[in-house]
Design goal:
The chain is α+β, with helices and mostly antiparallel strands. The protein is about 40% helix and about 20% strand. The strands form 3 sheets. A 5-stranded antiparallel β-sheet has the order 6-5-4-3-7. A 4-stranded antiparallel β-sheet has the order 9-10-8-11. It has a two-stranded antiparallel sheet with strand order 1-2.
């Protein structure tokens, strides 16, 4: 008799089972490695542990690839997966501080979560209400932009099906190739506009009107939304800077825990200060962000960003002294 495969992290095994259930085509060894940051051998042991305790897991045929995959074909984890009152209350509180679009979509998700817990929903409703009253989020000072959900739905359909859309933007009729949506203080549609030539452009979602799907197909090949987003500080693209900053020792602890940009390198200095470097475009957003650090930050490079920051401060002082 063969020894039963063992893997000691029970939480990871449970997570893997749920991960398998969430993937229609199952998961591969490479998927397990990537999700749990483990070696191939450990990933194989984790799979074997799942196969040992969950006979419902099957090897799934992948006609378009040679990679082997495992998952659930005729079985559901609905009976063993539950959302706690804490889970629901957390989303309820987050939705309060979200933009209008996210609020509506989060409410729909919360409704589905409650439906999955229909057998015990009456018993957890009181607990949810208590948590809602005892935990919360501070009000976010940000403008509210009205978004037409029908427009959002049309754009999403265009992105998924690779169909061009027609729309009016800044008073002009345009044909756009929708590539993705970026959520920040405002929601931006990232799209190509053939009449402008090559490249991607940002369009404020709340300024788009009369949005309609066309029957014209386009290819998004070569575009990666995450890579696009990582090039900028905020959402606006432009000249890319090699930014070097130094923060005073008074804010060193905060800076060490702060996420400025995906490409950042944070280096403590011998004098207690902290040096931060990253590569990004969006000079105006960088300046606005640095302003809140007050006198605790100094721009070392590039000089162009230093000059822009000085001009910005001069404009602020000029307006105050009018």
């Amino acid at each position: 008799m063969l020894d039963k495969p063992r893997y000691s992290r029970v939480s990871d095994i449970i997570d893997l089972i749920i991960f398998m259930q969430s993937k229609v085509n199952g998961v591969s060894i490479a998927d397990i490695q990537d999700r749990f940051h483990v070696s191939r051998r450990t990933a194989e042991r984790m799979r074997d542990s799942v196969l040992n305790i969950m006979p419902q897991v099957e090897e799934i045929d992948s006609p378009n690839e040679r990679t082997k995959r495992w998952g659930f074909v005729n079985y559901s984890l609905r009976e063993i997966i539950n959302f706690s009152a804490e889970d629901v209350a957390l989303l309820e509180n987050i939705s309060k501080n979200a933009d209008e679009v996210s609020q509506r979509e989060l409410k729909d998700i919360i409704t589905k979560m409650k439906a999955l817990n229909s057998k015990q929903i009456n018993s957890i409703e009181n607990e949810i209400e208590f948590l809602m009253h005892s935990e919360g989020y501070a009000i976010r000072q940000a403008p509210v932009y009205k978004i037409d959900l029908d427009i959002l739905s049309t754009i999403r359909q265009g992105i998924k099906q690779g169909l061009k859309i027609s729309a009016v933007y800044n008073g002009k009729q345009r044909i756009l190739e929708p590539l993705g949506l970026l959520y920040g203080e405002k929601i931006h549609l990232i799209a190509r506009e053939p009449k402008k030539g090559k490249g991607e452009y940002n369009y404020l979602l709340h300024k788009l009107t009369d949005v309609k799907l066309t029957e014209k197909k386009f290819s998004s090949k070569g575009f990666n939304l995450q890579e696009y987003a990582n090039q900028s500080f905020g959402v606006y693209h432009g000249e890319i800077y090699d930014v070097e900053l130094v923060f005073s020792k008074e804010v060193a602890d905060d800076v060490m825990k702060y996420n400025f940009h995906p490409s950042q390198k944070v280096t403590p200095q011998k004098d207690g200060t902290v040096k931060v470097t990253f590569k990004a475009s969006g000079d105006r957003h960088i300046i606005w962000h640095l302003f809140k650090w007050g006198t605790n930050v100094k721009i070392l490079a590039p000089q162009k960003l230093v000059d822009l920051y000085k001009d910005y401060l001069k404009d602020v002082l000029y307006n105050l002294n009018k």
